[in-house]
Amino acid sequence: MKRLAMCVALACVMLQAAAADKKMDAFVSRLMARMTLSEKIGQLNLQPAGDVTTGAAMDTEVGGMVARGELGAVLNLKGKDKIRALQQVAVEKSRLGIPLLVGLDVIHGYHTILPIPLAQACSWDVEGIERGARMAAEEASSDGISWTYSPMVDIALDARWGRIAEGNGEDPYLGSLIAAALVRGYQGDFSDRTHIMACLKHYALYGAVEAGRDYNTVDMSHLRMFNQYFPPYKAAVEAGVGSVMTSFNLVDGQHATANRWLLEDVLRRMWGFGGFIVTDYSSIAEMVRHGFGDLAHNSELALKAGTDMDMCSQGFLKHLEQLVKDGRVSKRLIDQACRRVLEAKYRLGLFDDPYRHCGLSDAEQAKYLFTAEHRQAARDFTAETFVLLRNEGNLLPLSKDCKIALIGPNADTTDGMLGTWCVSRPASDAYPSLRRAMEQAVEGRGKVFFAQGCNIAPYGRMRTAGNSWYIPEVDSEKAHTEAMEAARQADVIVCAMGEGADYSGESHSRTTLSMPETQLSLLRDLAALGKPIVLLNFAGRPTTMEWERHHIPAILNVWFGGTEMGTALCDVLFGDKVPCGRLTVSMPRAVGQEPLYYNHLRTGRPVRDDETRFRNYQSNYFEVSNGPAFPFGFGLSYTQFTYGPMQVKQQGRSVEVTVDVTNSGSRDAYEVVQCYIHDIACRYARPVKELKAFERVFLRAGETKTVHLALSEASLSYYDMQGTLFFEPGEFDIMVGANSRDVQTKRVTVK
Ligand code: BGC
Are 511 and 385 in contact (CB under 8 A)? Predict the structure, then answer.
């Protein structure tokens, strides 16, 4: 009976959706019947307005273009009043009054800045991530934004690549859950004014650029694409993402922007994507530099491959009309692209109310932007993203009653806590730095002695970044003396060190993954004092910490946590909250191990991850063992968890794993129970481990919970080179544990 009711409800929803689609079709058809070819081409053109720079600056007079119907969307325009004024030009001055889409990179928050995406993923709190996206959409939509260039779901395995900070790490399963959550968070069902359109990016494989150097070549097997890189994109499409951005790289020797197999066969036909496809910043123009011919030719290739909108190349705008006249491009293709763009605007409700995102008064807007409620939510969530890597002798949490030397270039900066991609942010003094937050946290009890201690990096040694503008340049000797002095007066030393906020992100690739030497040498001197010392490692990527992890008793990997990072750090440092983040990237021992990831294939000459001796004619290195310093899934807590023996139950091709997990320490806390599989023998090589299920469980001190993790036939299957999911009967190792290294295993045969 219940099932019948559900089926009826589902059928009703489907009928309603079909009726809505029909209405939209009719509306768009009527509108398009009135459009000239050049007006249709105008809808396919996206240009920057110049308030924010996210690529080569362009001298475009957007107002005039909008009035002439030459622009369908704009990016990098900021502020609701400015956006409203431009929308008014579109609605009142252009011939047909078609509203603009207004896009911006709202990547991890708008004014209330959340942790960088890589950090968010380390929370493993998929619902929390969805709530964060919802919050970002509420804020951005109150300021005129209708379209965000997020989620970025590129799997990234090479820590040298600065954009690893923007993604969710190395795992396709977790990455897929997060991709879908972000889409839901931004878009909702488009029924509300605060729902904005998401843009899945960068399709596809951008995270696999060779040598971790941004914008570099990508070349990979289809088997790997389908199994390791495509799942998060597919998940976002299944969650209903409204638009997709192509990537800068090649796929099978063709630019992603002009790759018909990628855009039509896989994205649209196999996965059923129904929205519109936009290029990345000036991609069509860059195709010229890749060696694919001139701008006209590349515009033709891109449109024919399925790209609908041209970001910043003006290739469509300048050449499509002539290409039609020359018979090289059919009007049908232009109609198809234009229809997709107009449908997106329709779904967003822009034809009903073009000002729905830019019509709030200042007072109304204040109810959305950087509110106390958003900031509290961000503070709570940020605390979930820190990963405790080491805590010898339970040094953490600290008492608020002690004297703390807070040292390091990241200790007293606000902008420096935000990380990459904060094109919108509150004023620097609108939120506390770690120093200010710590002073408040211990007020009336302890004392904070602050010293910057050193420059973030040796000046002039880094080619551009490295001298982060928000961290003052100091006299090295004097700063060192001050830091040592502060440390001598204190009971405990807390070092806020690591990368600058601008060391990661777009175009910020590195060849070293260690802390800059200015900081490391100070850290060594401080450690030599023999006082308890805590390292807060600020990072936009996995870092190497070979010296630190043997000499610094407590290490908390804190990434870049956003506007509430200072307070969230104090919550964790002083034990008001228990750290619960788990790595979603492998932390290497040495940069030369990159790309390093847990779900790698086997070799014919395998060496154990923890083998310390070099083995000749085997797959290993001279200097370090193969395994990471800290594995995927790893993270400590202020409590301990013990796992009972795992049970495996099989029913047909489904496997259920059950394990009792006990909080055997004294603090209530979250544990992330992880389940991996390994397909023992198959037609195509399979990874040594693959995450297939997990549960984030809250356990009170002393409590035991039975955790059930379900593996379906699909979880035990994999894709062939054509992208068909198939199941191969046989043996599987099923593993359960607290991280990808420390697992218990049971072998099962599934027929
Ligand atoms: C980046 C995209 C971004 C776009 C628009 C490009 O340079 O690769 O991620 O969305 O600029 O700002």
Answer: no
Q: How far apart are CA 256 and CA 218, in angstroms?
A: 10
Distance CA 501, CA 718 (A): 38
Cβ–ligand 1 contact at 147 (below 6 Å)? no
Distance CA 745, CA 330 (A): 58
Residue recorded with tokens 């091709």:
653
Instruction: Answer yes or no: is the C-beta of 730 below 6 A from any ligand 1 atom.
Output: no
Q: Which two tokens stand for residue 635?
A: 């993270």
Q: Which domain holds residue 739?
A: 639-750
The gap from C-alpha 528 to its chain's centroid, in whole angstroms, comes to 38
CA 679 to ligand 1 center in whole angstroms: 38
Q: Structure pTM?
A: 0.97
- Cα four-point dihedral sign 119, 120, 126, 128: positive
Quick check: is 319 in a domain? no
Residue closest via CA to ligand 1's atom 8 equals 280
Find the length of the chain: 751
- Quick: pLDDT tens for 115-174: 999 999 999 999 999 999 999 999 999 999 999 999 999 999 999 999 999 999 999 999
Tell me how far the alpha carbon of residue 281 lies from the centroid of ligand 1, in angstroms.
6
| pLDDT tens-digit readout, 32-45 | 999 999 999 999 99
Q: How far apart are CA 410 and CA 470, in angstroms?
A: 10
Nearest-CA residue for ligand 1 atom 10 is: 149
Res. 1 pLDDT band, cuts 50 70 90: low
Binding site membership of 280 for ligand 1 (Cβ less than 6 Å): yes
- Calculate the CA dihedral of residues 468, 471, 472, 475 and round it to 10 degrees: -80
> Which of 405, 404, 402 has its CA nearest to residue 483?
405
In a domain, 692, yes or no: yes
Other C-beta atoms closer than 10 Å to the C-beta of 217 total 13
Q: Is residue 27 part of a domain?
A: yes
Residue 297 lies in a domain: no
Q: What tokens were used for 455? A: 């420059």
Cis-peptide into 232, omega within 30 deg: no
Residue among 105, 423, 424 to mutate when testing ligand 1 (max atoms within 8 A of CB): 105
Closest CA to 139 of 423, 379, 383, 374: 374
The enclosing domain of 681 has a CATH number of: 2.60.40.10
Selecting among 280, 308, 310, 679, the annotated active-site residue is: 280
* Secondary structure of residue 527 in the 3-state scheme: helix
C-alpha span between 162 and 212 (Å, rounded): 8
The count of domains in the chain is: 2
280 catalytic residue (yes or no): yes
Q: Is the CB of 286 under 6 A from ligand 1?
A: no
Specify the ligand 1 atom closest to the Cα of 104. 12
The token pair that represents 170 in the structure block: 């190395």
Q: How many CA atoms lie within 13 A of 569 on its CB side?
A: 35
Distance from the alpha carbon of residue 201 to the mean position of ligand 1, in angstroms: 9
